[in-house]
Amino acid sequence: MSIPRRVALAVIAFCLAPLAAAQSKDPPRKPVVGFSQVGAESAWRTAETASIKDEASKRGVELKFADAQGKQAAQVRSLRSFIAQKVDYIILAPIVESGWDEVLGDAKAAGIPVLLVDRGVKVKDESLFVTLIASDFVEEGRMAGEWLAKQTGGKASIVELQGTTGAAPAIDRRKGFAQAIAAHPDMRIIKSQSGDFSRAKGKEVMEAFIKSEGRKITAVYAHNDDMALGAIQALDEAGMKPGAGVTVISIDAVKGAFEAMVEGKLNATVECNPLLGPMAFDTIEKHRKGETIPKFIKQTDRLFDQSQAAEAIKMRQY
Ligand code: GZL
Q1: Which parts of the chain sit beneath pLDDT 50?
Q2: In this structure, is residue 2 part of a structural domain?
Q3: Cβ neighbour number for residue 271 with a 10 Å cutoff
Q4: CB contact at 8 A, 116 and 131
Q5: I need a surface site. Which of 44, 170, 212, 252 has the fewest CB within 10 A?
Q6: Residues 200, 104: one domain?
Q7: Which of 38, 42, 95 is the best mutation target for the ligand 1 pocket, counting ligand atoms within 8 Å of the beta carbon and taking the most?
Q8: What is the pTM of this model?
Protein backbone atom coordinates (compact mmCIF):
# COMPACT_ATOMS: atom_id res chain seq x y z
CA MET A 1 0.00 0.00 0.00
CA SER A 2 1.70 3.21 -1.22
CA ILE A 3 1.61 6.30 1.05
CA PRO A 4 0.15 9.33 -0.73
CA ARG A 5 3.01 11.70 -1.73
CA ARG A 6 1.65 14.65 0.22
CA VAL A 7 1.42 12.57 3.45
CA ALA A 8 5.01 11.39 3.01
CA LEU A 9 6.24 14.98 2.48
CA ALA A 10 4.32 16.14 5.60
CA VAL A 11 5.95 13.40 7.73
CA ILE A 12 9.45 14.30 6.45
CA ALA A 13 8.84 18.03 7.10
CA PHE A 14 7.65 17.26 10.65
CA CYS A 15 10.75 15.17 11.40
CA LEU A 16 13.15 17.80 10.02
CA ALA A 17 11.45 20.81 11.69
CA PRO A 18 13.58 20.76 14.91
CA LEU A 19 16.80 20.54 12.87
CA ALA A 20 15.73 23.45 10.66
CA ALA A 21 14.78 25.48 13.69
CA ALA A 22 18.15 24.79 15.35
CA GLN A 23 20.07 25.82 12.25
CA SER A 24 18.05 28.97 11.76
CA LYS A 25 18.57 30.11 15.42
CA ASP A 26 20.47 33.40 15.26
CA PRO A 27 23.45 33.77 17.61
CA PRO A 28 22.24 35.55 20.81
CA ARG A 29 22.12 39.36 20.41
CA LYS A 30 25.19 41.05 21.98
CA PRO A 31 24.32 42.62 25.36
CA VAL A 32 24.17 46.39 25.85
CA VAL A 33 26.17 47.22 29.01
CA GLY A 34 26.16 50.37 31.14
CA PHE A 35 29.46 51.05 32.99
CA SER A 36 29.50 53.56 35.85
CA GLN A 37 33.12 54.47 36.68
CA VAL A 38 34.38 56.31 39.81
CA GLY A 39 36.34 58.96 37.93
CA ALA A 40 39.92 59.42 36.69
CA GLU A 41 41.71 60.10 39.99
CA SER A 42 44.70 57.80 39.46
CA ALA A 43 46.83 55.93 36.92
CA TRP A 44 45.24 52.74 38.23
CA ARG A 45 41.74 54.06 37.43
CA THR A 46 42.79 55.06 33.93
CA ALA A 47 44.11 51.52 33.34
CA GLU A 48 40.87 49.97 34.62
CA THR A 49 38.71 52.16 32.37
CA ALA A 50 40.85 51.31 29.34
CA SER A 51 40.65 47.58 30.12
CA ILE A 52 36.85 47.57 30.27
CA LYS A 53 36.41 49.79 27.19
CA ASP A 54 38.94 47.77 25.15
CA GLU A 55 37.32 44.47 26.09
CA ALA A 56 33.84 45.72 25.17
CA SER A 57 34.99 46.82 21.72
CA LYS A 58 36.95 43.57 21.22
CA ARG A 59 33.69 41.63 21.86
CA GLY A 60 31.45 43.95 19.85
CA VAL A 61 29.51 44.87 22.99
CA GLU A 62 27.83 48.31 23.07
CA LEU A 63 29.22 50.00 26.22
CA LYS A 64 27.50 53.08 27.66
CA PHE A 65 30.25 54.75 29.75
CA ALA A 66 29.66 57.27 32.57
CA ASP A 67 32.53 58.93 34.52
CA ALA A 68 31.19 60.13 37.91
CA GLN A 69 34.18 62.43 38.56
CA GLY A 70 34.37 61.16 42.12
CA LYS A 71 30.72 61.85 43.03
CA GLN A 72 28.40 59.06 44.26
CA ALA A 73 25.32 61.13 43.31
CA ALA A 74 26.56 61.16 39.72
CA GLN A 75 26.96 57.38 39.81
CA VAL A 76 23.39 56.95 41.08
CA ARG A 77 22.12 59.22 38.28
CA SER A 78 24.02 57.15 35.71
CA LEU A 79 22.57 53.90 37.05
CA ARG A 80 19.05 55.37 36.80
CA SER A 81 19.76 56.42 33.23
CA PHE A 82 21.01 52.91 32.35
CA ILE A 83 17.80 51.47 33.85
CA ALA A 84 15.66 53.89 31.81
CA GLN A 85 17.58 52.87 28.67
CA LYS A 86 16.88 49.20 29.52
CA VAL A 87 20.51 48.07 29.24
CA ASP A 88 21.09 44.32 29.58
CA TYR A 89 23.80 44.55 32.28
CA ILE A 90 25.32 47.19 34.55
CA ILE A 91 28.99 47.22 35.57
CA LEU A 92 29.54 49.42 38.65
CA ALA A 93 32.81 50.51 40.28
CA PRO A 94 31.23 51.97 43.45
CA ILE A 95 33.13 54.98 44.78
CA VAL A 96 32.08 54.25 48.40
CA GLU A 97 30.63 51.20 50.20
CA SER A 98 27.29 52.58 51.41
CA GLY A 99 24.20 54.22 49.87
CA TRP A 100 23.43 51.71 47.09
CA ASP A 101 20.40 49.74 48.38
CA GLU A 102 17.73 51.84 46.68
CA VAL A 103 19.22 52.22 43.20
CA LEU A 104 20.44 48.60 43.08
CA GLY A 105 16.93 47.61 44.15
CA ASP A 106 15.56 49.54 41.18
CA ALA A 107 17.99 47.77 38.83
CA LYS A 108 16.88 44.39 40.24
CA ALA A 109 13.20 45.35 39.86
CA ALA A 110 13.95 46.25 36.22
CA GLY A 111 15.56 42.82 35.75
CA ILE A 112 19.04 44.29 35.07
CA PRO A 113 21.90 42.27 36.66
CA VAL A 114 24.68 44.38 38.26
CA LEU A 115 28.35 43.35 38.38
CA LEU A 116 30.63 45.15 40.86
CA VAL A 117 34.23 45.67 39.78
CA ASP A 118 37.19 46.86 41.85
CA ARG A 119 35.31 47.98 44.98
CA GLY A 120 32.57 46.38 47.10
CA VAL A 121 29.35 47.70 48.61
CA LYS A 122 27.58 47.17 51.93
CA VAL A 123 23.93 46.31 51.16
CA LYS A 124 21.18 44.60 53.21
CA ASP A 125 20.47 42.11 50.42
CA GLU A 126 23.44 40.64 48.52
CA SER A 127 21.14 39.47 45.73
CA LEU A 128 21.27 43.11 44.54
CA PHE A 129 24.50 42.30 42.69
CA VAL A 130 25.68 39.23 40.76
CA THR A 131 29.32 39.29 41.89
CA LEU A 132 32.28 41.44 42.99
CA ILE A 133 35.42 41.19 40.84
CA ALA A 134 38.19 42.77 42.95
CA SER A 135 41.33 42.36 45.01
CA ASP A 136 41.32 41.52 48.71
CA PHE A 137 42.24 44.92 50.15
CA VAL A 138 42.72 43.66 53.71
CA GLU A 139 45.31 41.23 52.35
CA GLU A 140 47.01 44.05 50.42
CA GLY A 141 47.24 46.15 53.60
CA ARG A 142 48.59 43.17 55.52
CA MET A 143 51.24 42.50 52.83
CA ALA A 144 52.35 46.13 53.03
CA GLY A 145 52.53 46.07 56.84
CA GLU A 146 54.40 42.78 57.00
CA TRP A 147 56.93 43.99 54.42
CA LEU A 148 57.48 47.26 56.32
CA ALA A 149 57.98 45.35 59.59
CA LYS A 150 60.67 43.23 57.96
CA GLN A 151 62.29 46.21 56.19
CA THR A 152 62.50 48.31 59.38
CA GLY A 153 63.23 45.55 61.89
CA GLY A 154 59.85 46.27 63.50
CA LYS A 155 60.63 49.89 64.38
CA ALA A 156 58.98 52.81 62.52
CA SER A 157 57.11 56.08 63.06
CA ILE A 158 54.64 55.87 60.20
CA VAL A 159 52.48 58.46 58.48
CA GLU A 160 49.54 56.96 56.56
CA LEU A 161 47.96 58.45 53.43
CA GLN A 162 44.47 56.94 53.27
CA GLY A 163 42.41 56.54 50.12
CA THR A 164 38.98 58.09 49.52
CA THR A 165 36.96 58.27 52.75
CA GLY A 166 34.33 55.51 52.81
CA ALA A 167 35.81 53.60 49.88
CA ALA A 168 36.26 49.84 50.36
CA PRO A 169 39.99 49.89 49.48
CA ALA A 170 40.65 52.72 51.95
CA ILE A 171 38.74 51.00 54.78
CA ASP A 172 40.28 47.58 54.21
CA ARG A 173 43.87 48.60 53.38
CA ARG A 174 43.92 50.53 56.66
CA LYS A 175 42.50 47.49 58.48
CA GLY A 176 44.99 45.00 57.01
CA PHE A 177 48.02 47.24 57.62
CA ALA A 178 46.97 47.85 61.24
CA GLN A 179 46.58 44.09 61.77
CA ALA A 180 50.11 43.46 60.44
CA ILE A 181 51.88 46.11 62.53
CA ALA A 182 49.92 45.26 65.70
CA ALA A 183 52.49 42.51 66.30
CA HIS A 184 55.26 45.15 66.50
CA PRO A 185 54.92 47.57 69.44
CA ASP A 186 57.71 49.82 68.04
CA MET A 187 55.78 50.40 64.80
CA ARG A 188 53.39 53.29 65.31
CA ILE A 189 51.14 55.29 62.99
CA ILE A 190 51.78 58.86 64.20
CA LYS A 191 49.53 60.58 61.59
CA SER A 192 46.82 59.29 59.25
CA GLN A 193 44.68 61.27 56.80
CA SER A 194 42.90 60.84 53.45
CA GLY A 195 44.72 61.95 50.31
CA ASP A 196 41.71 60.83 48.23
CA PHE A 197 43.84 58.50 46.07
CA SER A 198 45.22 61.48 44.15
CA ARG A 199 48.86 62.61 43.66
CA ALA A 200 48.11 66.29 44.31
CA LYS A 201 46.22 65.64 47.54
CA GLY A 202 48.84 63.10 48.62
CA LYS A 203 51.56 65.75 48.26
CA GLU A 204 49.47 68.33 50.12
CA VAL A 205 48.75 66.02 53.07
CA MET A 206 52.39 64.86 53.21
CA GLU A 207 53.53 68.52 53.37
CA ALA A 208 51.24 68.96 56.40
CA PHE A 209 52.65 65.79 58.00
CA ILE A 210 56.22 67.06 57.46
CA LYS A 211 55.26 70.42 58.94
CA SER A 212 53.89 68.81 62.12
CA GLU A 213 56.12 65.73 62.53
CA GLY A 214 59.27 66.58 60.57
CA ARG A 215 62.22 64.23 61.09
CA LYS A 216 60.16 62.03 63.45
CA ILE A 217 58.74 60.42 60.29
CA THR A 218 60.68 57.28 59.34
CA ALA A 219 58.11 55.61 57.03
CA VAL A 220 55.18 56.44 54.73
CA TYR A 221 52.33 53.99 54.01
CA ALA A 222 50.20 55.21 51.07
CA HIS A 223 47.01 53.39 50.04
CA ASN A 224 47.94 53.94 46.38
CA ASP A 225 50.98 54.81 44.25
CA ASP A 226 49.63 58.18 43.11
CA MET A 227 49.55 59.47 46.69
CA ALA A 228 52.98 57.89 47.35
CA LEU A 229 54.44 59.77 44.35
CA GLY A 230 52.97 63.00 45.70
CA ALA A 231 54.44 62.25 49.12
CA ILE A 232 57.84 61.50 47.55
CA GLN A 233 57.77 64.94 45.89
CA ALA A 234 57.02 66.59 49.25
CA LEU A 235 59.80 64.61 51.00
CA ASP A 236 62.27 65.52 48.25
CA GLU A 237 61.38 69.21 48.58
CA ALA A 238 61.90 68.96 52.36
CA GLY A 239 65.30 67.27 51.84
CA MET A 240 64.12 64.13 53.65
CA LYS A 241 65.47 61.52 51.16
CA PRO A 242 62.43 59.31 50.27
CA GLY A 243 63.41 55.66 49.78
CA ALA A 244 66.53 56.09 51.92
CA GLY A 245 66.01 58.25 55.04
CA VAL A 246 62.24 57.62 54.90
CA THR A 247 60.92 54.21 53.78
CA VAL A 248 57.96 54.49 51.39
CA ILE A 249 55.51 51.63 50.72
CA SER A 250 52.33 51.84 48.64
CA ILE A 251 49.78 49.80 46.66
CA ASP A 252 48.75 49.47 42.98
CA ALA A 253 52.10 48.75 41.20
CA VAL A 254 51.45 51.21 38.33
CA LYS A 255 54.34 52.10 36.01
CA GLY A 256 55.12 55.35 37.89
CA ALA A 257 55.79 53.27 41.00
CA PHE A 258 58.33 51.11 39.16
CA GLU A 259 60.04 54.23 37.83
CA ALA A 260 60.23 55.60 41.40
CA MET A 261 61.65 52.27 42.65
CA VAL A 262 64.30 52.29 39.91
CA GLU A 263 65.16 55.83 41.04
CA GLY A 264 65.43 54.52 44.63
CA LYS A 265 62.65 56.83 45.94
CA LEU A 266 59.91 54.23 46.47
CA ASN A 267 60.82 51.07 48.39
CA ALA A 268 57.98 48.68 47.51
CA THR A 269 54.45 48.48 46.10
CA VAL A 270 51.72 45.83 46.34
CA GLU A 271 50.13 45.06 42.98
CA CYS A 272 46.35 45.53 42.62
CA ASN A 273 45.20 44.32 39.22
CA PRO A 274 43.14 46.98 37.30
CA LEU A 275 42.83 44.93 34.09
CA LEU A 276 39.35 43.66 34.97
CA GLY A 277 37.77 43.93 31.51
CA PRO A 278 38.26 40.32 30.33
CA MET A 279 36.99 38.87 33.63
CA ALA A 280 33.98 41.21 33.66
CA PHE A 281 32.80 40.27 30.17
CA ASP A 282 33.55 36.56 30.65
CA THR A 283 31.34 36.72 33.74
CA ILE A 284 28.53 38.43 31.80
CA GLU A 285 28.72 35.69 29.14
CA LYS A 286 28.57 32.96 31.79
CA HIS A 287 25.66 34.68 33.53
CA ARG A 288 23.74 34.92 30.23
CA LYS A 289 24.14 31.15 29.81
CA GLY A 290 22.66 30.64 33.28
CA GLU A 291 25.93 29.48 34.86
CA THR A 292 26.38 29.89 38.63
CA ILE A 293 28.62 32.89 39.43
CA PRO A 294 30.57 33.12 42.74
CA LYS A 295 29.73 36.18 44.86
CA PHE A 296 33.42 37.23 44.97
CA ILE A 297 35.93 36.71 42.14
CA LYS A 298 39.23 37.52 43.84
CA GLN A 299 42.18 38.91 41.90
CA THR A 300 45.67 37.75 42.93
CA ASP A 301 48.12 40.40 44.14
CA ARG A 302 51.86 40.33 44.83
CA LEU A 303 54.49 42.70 46.23
CA PHE A 304 57.33 44.24 44.21
CA ASP A 305 60.37 45.85 45.83
CA GLN A 306 63.36 47.81 44.48
CA SER A 307 65.38 44.64 43.79
CA GLN A 308 62.81 43.50 41.17
CA ALA A 309 61.87 46.90 39.70
CA ALA A 310 64.40 47.22 36.85
CA GLU A 311 63.42 43.81 35.42
CA ALA A 312 59.69 43.94 36.13
CA ILE A 313 59.18 47.43 34.61
CA LYS A 314 59.81 45.99 31.12
CA MET A 315 56.72 43.73 31.43
CA ARG A 316 54.29 46.18 32.98
CA GLN A 317 51.10 46.82 30.95
CA TYR A 318 49.96 49.91 32.90
C1 GZL B 1 41.43 49.58 43.96
C2 GZL B 1 40.92 50.92 43.45
C3 GZL B 1 41.74 52.06 43.99
C4 GZL B 1 43.20 52.07 43.55
C5 GZL B 1 43.45 53.54 43.41
O6 GZL B 1 40.61 48.55 43.44
O7 GZL B 1 39.57 51.11 43.81
O8 GZL B 1 41.16 53.28 43.50
O9 GZL B 1 44.07 51.46 44.47
C10 GZL B 1 42.16 53.98 42.73
O11 GZL B 1 44.59 53.91 42.68
O12 GZL B 1 42.03 55.34 42.75
Answers
A1: none
A2: no
A3: 21
A4: yes
A5: 212
A6: no
A7: 42
A8: 0.91
